[in-house]
Design goal:
Structural class: alpha/beta
Number of domains: 2
GO molecular function, one term: NADP binding
Function: Catalyzes the oxidation of glucose 6-phosphate to 6-phosphogluconolactone.
Pathway: Carbohydrate degradation; pentose phosphate pathway; D-ribulose 5-phosphate from D-glucose 6-phosphate (oxidative stage): step 1/3
Number of strands: 15
CATH superfamily of the largest domain: Dihydrodipicolinate Reductase, domain 2
Shape: globular
Largest sheet: 9 strands, mixed
Bound molecules: NADPH dihydro-nicotinamide-adenine-dinucleotide phosphate, ligand LXAUTJHC
Protein name: Glucose-6-phosphate 1-dehydrogenase
Distance between the termini: 46 Å
CATH class of the largest domain: Alpha Beta
Radius of gyration: 24 Å
CATH architecture of the largest domain: 2-Layer Sandwich
Order of helices and strands: EHEHHEHEHEHEHHEHHHEEEEEEEHHEH
Helix content: 25-40%
Number of helices: 14
Catalytic activity: D-glucose 6-phosphate + NADP(+) = 6-phospho-D-glucono-1,5-lactone + NADPH + H(+)
Strand order of the largest sheet: 14-13-12-11-7-10-9-8-15
Length: 491
């Protein structure tokens, strides 16, 4: 049983997709594990006129799967209340305050409040302002704000947003969520890097040849076309998830495994990102859009709510440099896209060749450390070993370091972990404002070059691993993607 937490959750966007698919199931897991018990309540707010009963029914459905007992789901759902609320209407905050006060007393919560902004970022400023001006924040407990991505549209809008939130909430009570930081295998990066002298000492430009980060999705744009048209893969995946992974892979070893020390090093790594000129963008970044597939899948421009002449990229590949002492000169190849051959999130660290191959005509394979985040957590290392037999020959052997067996370990969902971190006041796995700012600075340079220059937007076949240009990017450096649709792990 976990340490009991007491808090009142106010979820803005309580009728939305994220709330139903991720937030309610995560809260339910915390409830089943005993982190939430008697002393918590949830107010869901949005404009539609739901009743408490209807809302509780939505919550019950959202948390029900084959393993859920009806009693647990019923008991849990009784902690949920609905308040029809337009975030732009000051009057509605008065009703919200009264409901919050009543529930605080009813559940003996002691003033702790967690405000989850699960809606469009254009509303964040006004919500933060009203929470303060209408006294929905308390004096007798903590008041924490969880903010969903995207944090702004570019550096200028992110600054505006940050300023408007910062007027009402201090940086240490703002939790900018990036759900990748809650993933078990992403958190494993620090364990592998800093817990093993073997890797700690090799983790630099003297031994690492290149790094490859792949976040590929098999699904298309699905129901989020309206948002995606304004974002594209660069803003949707690179600005946040991919650059966060880059920072975790390249940061210096923190003085201690604490929030402030880790943050300092992550900020330093992101500050060291090489920001490209338009000419460098053209050379080092590729964008593309998915086309129709021979299997009958729609191309991006044929999807609902997408313009026939949309220029939104659904795929990005690029070469990134972190110009720190330990990483300058190491190409970090990144790629992400929708409608690719497979849903996989993986990191391949490719080490340099031994300075001299003494084995004559025997070819040496590369040492590659692979961290698979999805679909199933795995870490393995490719090594050269002798082939068994009379003669001397070499072969590449995959050394399994970790395999998260299906069902053998209870892997908490990213949102579950992150919400618990917020309840505990631990912001280690959240994004600090400076990280956001340096990431936008890097991304804006690419976006501006794409918007202002005639940089091509090729199509790729749905079900492939992107356009030929993404392979050419590595081939020019005499490298290749370790993960391909044909071969999971070739060299
Ligand atoms: N869905 C996902 O998988 C992910 C989402 N996110 C982010 O989470 C946030 C929410 O996304 P998602 O749930 O998909 O979005 P949805 O469009 O599904 O939900 C938006 C919510 O906002 C409410 N809303 C809209 N306008 C108002 C208003 N004026 N006053 C009060 N409520 C309003 C809507 O309810 P109503 O219409 O009843 O008012 C609805 O509950 C976004 O920032 C998104 O980028 C981030 C990662 C993944
Ligand atoms: O933030 C986002 O992430 C999802 C992919 O998340 P994952 O945990 O399934 O890898 C992506 O589909 C979505 O477009 C983006 O907004």
């Amino acid at each position: 049983m976990g340490t009991r937490q007491q808090a009142l959750f106010i979820i803005f966007g309580g009728t939305g997709d994220l709330a139903k698919r991720k937030l309610y199931p995560s809260l339910f897991e915390l409830y089943k594990k005993g982190f939430l018990k008697e002393n918590f309540a949830v107010i869901g707010t949005a404009r539609r006129p739901w009743t408490d009963e209807y809302f509780q029914d939505v919550v019950r459905k959202a948390v029900t799967d084959a393993d859920t007992s009806k009693e647990d789901a019923d008991e849990f759902a009784q902690h949920f209340y609905y308040q029809s609320h337009n975030v732009n209407d000051t009057e509605h905050y008065v009703t919200l305050r009264k409901l919050a006060q009543r529930l605080d007393q009813k559940y003996s919560i002691g003033g702790n409040r967690l405000f989850y902004l699960a809606m469009s970022p254009r509303f964040f400023g006004t919500i933060a302002e009203h929470l303060k001006s209408q006294n929905i924040v308390t004096d007798n407990g903590y008041n924490r704000l969880i903010i969903e991505k995207p944090f702004g549209h570019d550096l200028a809008s992110a600054k505006d947003l940050n300023n408007s939130i910062g007027r009402y909430f201090a940086e240490d009570s703002v939790f900018r969520i990036d759900h990748y930081l809650g993933k078990e295998m992403i958190q494993n990066i620090a364990a592998v890097r800093f817990g093993n002298n073997l890797f700690r000492s090799l983790w630099n430009n003297r031994y690492i040849d290149n790094i490859q980060i792949t976040l590929s999705e098999a699904l298309g744009v699905e129901e989020r076309a309206g948002y995606y048209e304004t974002a594209g893969a660069l803003r949707d995946m690179v600005q946040n998830h991919i650059l966060q992974i880059v920072s975790l892979l390249t940061m210096n070893m923190p003085a201690s495994f604490t929030e402030s020390d880790i943050r300092r090093e992550k900020i330093y790594a992101l500050k060291a990102l090489q920001v490209y000129s338009p000419e460098q963008v053209e050379k080092n970044f590729v964008r593309a859009q998915y086309g129709e597939s021979s299997a009958g899948l729609k191309g991006y421009r044929q999807e609902e709510q997408i313009a026939d002449d949309s220029k939104t990229e659904t795929f990005v590949a690029g070469k990134v440099f972190v110009n720190s002492e330990n990483f300058s000169g190491v190409p970090i190849y990144i790629r992400t896209g929708k409608r690719l051959s497979k849903k996989t999130t993986r990191i391949d660290i490719v080490f340099k060749d031994v300075p001299k191959n003494i084995f004559g005509s025997e070819r040496l394979g590369k040492n590659i450390l692979t961290i698979i985040v999805e679909p199933k957590g795995e870490i393995y290392l490719q090594m050269n070993v002798k082939k068994i037999g009379q003669n001397f020959g070499l072969k590449v052997q995959k050394l399994d370091l970790l395999q998260v067996e299906d069902n053998s370990v209870q892997i908490p969902e990213a949102y579950e972990k992150l919400i618990l971190d917020v309840l505990r006041g631990d912001a280690t796995n959240f994004t600090h404002w400076e990280e956001v700012a340096y990431s936008w600075k890097f991304v804006d340079a690419i976006r501006n070059a794409w918007d202002n220059q005639q940089i091509p937007l090729p199509e790729y076949a749905s079900g492939s691993m992107g356009p030929q240009e993404a392979d050419d990017l590595l081939a020019r450096d005499d490298h290749h993607w370790i993960f391909t649709s044909e071969n999971d792990n070739r060299d």
